[in-house]
């Protein structure tokens, strides 16, 4: 019997070499999501894909509320730098372990009212609905304080019209839900131009906003 490896074996060895041994370990948040609602990962990554396209290439990116950094490889792929901020210490440690790179930095901090520099693009997905209405103005002030003169902002949040279909956990944690109209109005306090998009599962659209499960607002041409 020949001792030479088969073509299939050689192919598998090439694939194994390509994959390497740099595995990623999810933290508690995304481990729970994959157990409880695995399709959610596809939805969230689709939101990040859209946000990255809006943020543009060769720009500095700040993510307010980055959690474990599940969107980091998408947001930072074509950015010149990426900064992620979150008050969840274990989540930030997971992000640091999974996504180390010289152009990425992660900060454990309550970002409300803080400035980390002036960035070309500020992204915040699934955050504002967790901020009590009496502190909402501070959130918008924080966005403005971290944005460069020609900066772009992408804000994503569940639509209040879809609240009846949300999970019990989501309903408990969402204390400040927006309609399309209220999100647009809030963004227009910062920008002359605001573009509203809706998302159902992974499908992005600009149709009837009340039917959207998720809202994404893009702001540009900042008010001075």
Q: Which labels suit this protein?
A:
alpha/beta, single chain, globular
Tell me what the structure shows.
The chain is α/β, with parallel strands linked by helices and 224 residues long. It is built from eight helices and eight strands; from the N terminus they run αααβαβαββαβααβββ. The protein has helices at residues 7-19, 28-36, 39-55, 72-75, 89-98, 136-145, 168-173, 180-187; strands spanning 60-64, 81-86, 104-108, 119-125, 147-158, 191-200, 203-205, 214-222. Strand 1 (60-64), helix 4 (72-75) and strand 2 form a beta-alpha-beta unit. The protein is globular and about 70 Å long. The termini are far apart. 33% of the residues are buried. The model has no long low-confidence stretch (mean pLDDT 93).
Shape: globular
Strand order of the largest sheet: 3-2-1-4-5-8-6-7
Q: What level of helicity do the residues show? A: 25-40%
How would you classify the helix and strand content by structural class?
alpha/beta
* Overall number of strands: 8
Cα separation of the termini: 79 Å
Question: How do you describe this structure in short?
Answer:
By secondary structure, this protein is of the alpha/beta class. 34% of the residues lie in helices and 25% in strands.
Question: What's the structural blueprint in terms of helices and strands?
Answer:
Layout: H1 7-19, H2 28-36, H3 39-55, E1 60-64, H4 72-75, E2 81-86, H5 89-98, E3 104-108, E4 119-125, H6 136-145, E5 147-158, H7 168-173, H8 180-187, E6 191-200, E7 203-205, E8 214-222
Parallel strand pairs: 1-2, 1-4, 2-3, 4-5
Antiparallel strand pairs: 5-8, 6-7, 6-8
């Amino acid at each position: 019997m020949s001792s030479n490896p088969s073509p299939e074996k050689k192919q598998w060895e090439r694939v194994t070499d390509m994959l390497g041994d740099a595995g990623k370990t999810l933290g508690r948040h995304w481990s729970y999501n994959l157990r409880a609602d695995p399709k959610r990962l596809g939805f969230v990554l689709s939101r990040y894909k859209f946000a990255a396209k809006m943020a543009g290439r060769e720009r500095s990116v700040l993510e307010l509320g980055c959690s474990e950094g599940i969107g980091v490889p998408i947001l930072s792929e074509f950015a010149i730098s990426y900064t992620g901020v979150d008050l969840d210490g274990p989540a930030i440690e997971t992000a640091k372990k999974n996504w180390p790179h010289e152009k990425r930095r992660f900060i454990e901090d309550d970002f409300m009212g803080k400035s980390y520099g002036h960035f070309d693009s500020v992204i915040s997905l699934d955050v504002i609905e967790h901020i009590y209405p009496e502190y909402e103005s501070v959130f918008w002030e924080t966005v403005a304080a971290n944005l460069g003169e020609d900066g772009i902002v992408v804000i994503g949040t569940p639509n209040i019209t879809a609240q009846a279909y949300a999970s019990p956990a989501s309903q408990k944690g969402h204390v400040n839900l927006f309609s399309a109209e209220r999100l647009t109005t809030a963004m227009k306090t910062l920008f002359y131009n605001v573009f509203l998009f809706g998302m159902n599962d992974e499908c992005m659209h600009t149709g009837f906003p009340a039917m959207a499960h998720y809202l994404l607002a893009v702001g540009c041409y900042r008010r001075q």
